[in-house]
């Protein structure tokens, strides 16, 4: 079995400097975005929800584009996307194997290569604890991402509420979820072995057996609301280095060669029953296991998953503009903090207090947005 290929980068000063620079830029802009660029427009949330949603989606999309450029500048990350096109103008569900805690971050580069507009319509299913992280977690709440606790009795209502929220917005979102529910590491692989033995399941070495109930609930709810046209099965493979811990990024240790293969399925071609969907998902993971087994059995220079999507020159120019804008925001926020700290620091404190207040009384801005948009329909049902 080959799970990890390549040697991690040495923790040299240049590598550490790149890692620290990336982290500082990401977390500073992630804090400035919600507090400075979004919170002052909070009244729009209560007056014109559609305007609010479009503003947040577009603003966060430009930040995603900024991050893709940072990954290339700091770490020389390159992605190779093959297979079928993910359509920006059609609602869809993206399922992908979950190898590291940074899979979703690198996937932004893949989406940029396919169609940069996907970064303005992407929604991600994440672990619930992430939403409480100052700055980054607040931005994710405002972007109406879906946070789960990996317990169906607790997750059923948030899934149904957020899917309805996405549908009622009238936007065509592409939702990324990881059916495995957690990353693949030594501990989770050992648990998977016990699960396989207990239920007499096929042995997997490159993926974990998927948790089917969340996937089935998501598909059926999206079907009910008419907010899904395609299901995209994305197979992810790291050709050089697999980062076992997110902390490795501080050392500048990231994969440089990341591969994605996309398979597209029309929703009407998927089974209609819950049992049929479970069987379909398990079947896709068996295919994914064989695909990755074949990939890692090849010499590194010969590896491929299956035309390659490359962003045009005009799109690259647009990304450079987004990067320049966010670097300007970063520089301006630092300068304002240093020069006008007596005014700026209290503002940051009040802004942070607002996010804490909403978290305590409403469960976060993600839940508040759902309540504001969907409460009318729920009251009518009652």
Automatic annotation (TrEMBL):
Domain of life: Eukaryota
Signal peptide bounds: none
Domain Phospholipid/glycerol acyltransferase: 92-216
One example of a Gene Ontology biological process annotation: phosphatidylinositol acyl-chain remodeling
TM stretches of this protein: 20-47, 321-341, 347-365
GO cellular component: endoplasmic reticulum
Record-level Gene Ontology MF annotations: acyltransferase activity
InterPro entries: Acyltransf_C, Plipid/glycerol_acylTrfase
Keyword Transcription regulation: no
The keyword DNA damage is annotated on this UniProt entry: no
Assigned keywords, A-Z: Acyltransferase, Membrane, Transferase, Transmembrane, Transmembrane helix
Family: Belongs to the 1-acyl-sn-glycerol-3-phosphate acyltransferase family.
PANTHER family given in the database record: 1-ACYLGLYCEROL-3-PHOSPHATE ACYLTRANSFERASE-RELATED, LYSOCARDIOLIPIN ACYLTRANSFERASE 1
Name of the molecule in the record: Phospholipid/glycerol acyltransferase domain-containing protein
């Amino acid at each position: 079995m080959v799970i990890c290929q390549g040697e991690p980068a040495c923790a040299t000063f240049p590598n550490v400097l790149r890692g620290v620079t990336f982290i500082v830029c990401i977390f500073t802009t992630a804090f400035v975005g919600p507090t400075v660029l979004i919170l002052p427009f909070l009244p729009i949330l209560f007056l014109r929800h559609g305007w609010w949603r479009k503003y947040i989606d577009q603003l966060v999309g430009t930040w995603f584009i900024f991050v893709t450029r940072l990954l290339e500048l700091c770490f020389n990350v390159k992605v190779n996307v093959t297979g079928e096109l993910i359509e920006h103008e059609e609602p869809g569900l993206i399922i992908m194997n979950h190898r590291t805690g940074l899979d979703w971050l690198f996937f932004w580069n893949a989406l940029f290569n396919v169609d940069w507009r996907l970064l303005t319509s992407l929604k991600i299913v994440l672990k619930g604890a992430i939403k409480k992280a100052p700055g980054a977690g607040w931005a994710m709440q405002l972007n109406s991402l879906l946070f789960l606790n990996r317990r169906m009795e607790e997750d059923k209502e948030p899934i149904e509420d957020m899917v309805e929220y996405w549908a009622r917005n009238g936007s065509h979102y592409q939702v990324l979820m990881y059916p495995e529910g957690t990353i693949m590491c030594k501990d989770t692989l050992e648990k998977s072995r016990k699960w396989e033995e207990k239920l007499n399941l096929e042995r997997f070495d490159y993926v974990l057996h998927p948790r089917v109930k969340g996937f089935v609930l998501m598909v059926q709810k999206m079907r009910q609301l008419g907010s899904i046209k395609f299901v995209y099965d994305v197979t992810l493979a790291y050709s050089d280095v697999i980062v076992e811990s997110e902390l490795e990024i501080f050392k500048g240790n990231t994969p440089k060669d990341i591969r994605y293969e996309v398979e597209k399925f029309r929703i009407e071609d998927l089974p209609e029953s819950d049992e049929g969907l479970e069987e379909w998902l398990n079947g896709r993971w068996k295919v994914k296991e064989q695909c990755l087994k074949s990939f890692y059995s090849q010499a590194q220079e010969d590896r491929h998953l299956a035309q390659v999507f490359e962003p045009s020159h005009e799109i690259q120019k647009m990304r450079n503009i987004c990067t320049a804008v966010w670097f300007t925001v970063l520089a301006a926020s630092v300068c304002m903090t240093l020069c006008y700290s007596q005014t700026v620091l209290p503002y940051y404190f009040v802004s942070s207090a607002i996010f804490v207040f909403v978290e305590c009384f409403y469960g976060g801005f993600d839940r508040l947005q759902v309540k504001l948009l969907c409460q009318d329909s729920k009251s009518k049902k009652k």
